[in-house]
Amino acid sequence: MPASVRKDWDTYFMDIAFMASTRSRCPRRHVGSVLVQGKKLLGTAYNGAPMGVPDCSEDGCMIVEEFEPAAGTESPGGIKVKQRCIRTIHAEQNLLLFTDRIDREGSVVYVTDQPCWTCANMLANSGIVEIVFHRVYPKDYDKVAALMKQRGIGFRQIDGYVPPPDTEVQDAI
């Protein structure tokens, strides 16, 4: 990008979310989030273990298995096993924990990955007016999009966005 061309605000704030994600020690996925009101940055967060507790890179992931119907199957044999780590607090949850409700009223959340269903529910009650993300989470996309529409919260993926170099982790999920 030539020095004379400024980044648009979406790119600027998403870049900051990706930079925040580099603080994550999760070997499976690095996620960062940013709270913005107008053009003012109010907070950043990333996914990780609670403060003072060993993280996944120190003590390993705490994997649980969930069983769910495989896509397009109705039969009992069509079960898919999904593994997920429960050691970490999601970036969106940390953002809500470390920002004030008054600051969230009317604000926008930029997050590297589309929020999961649990985070979407929390964000829906947080006072924000929009969620902007880069990577889609296909498992929850339809129901999260429907929830945001029902709540009147903007929900959009940035088209054509390219994260800053050295900020993306190859997902092990």
UniProtKB/TrEMBL annotation:
Residues 8-155 form the CMP/dCMP-type deaminase domain. Keywords: Hydrolase, Metal-binding, Zinc. SUPFAM superfamilies: Cytidine deaminase-like. One of its GO terms (cellular component) is cytoplasm. The keyword Zinc-finger does not apply. Zn(2+) binds at H90, C116, C119. CDD domains: deoxycytidylate_deaminase (cd01286). GO terms for molecular function: dCMP deaminase activity; zinc ion binding. Pfam families: dCMP_cyt_deam_1. One of its GO terms (biological process) is pyrimidine nucleotide metabolic process. The active site is at E92 (proton donor). Its cofactor is Zn(2+). Transmembrane segments: none annotated. Belongs to the cytidine and deoxycytidylate deaminase family. This is CMP deaminase. It comes from Cohnella candidum.
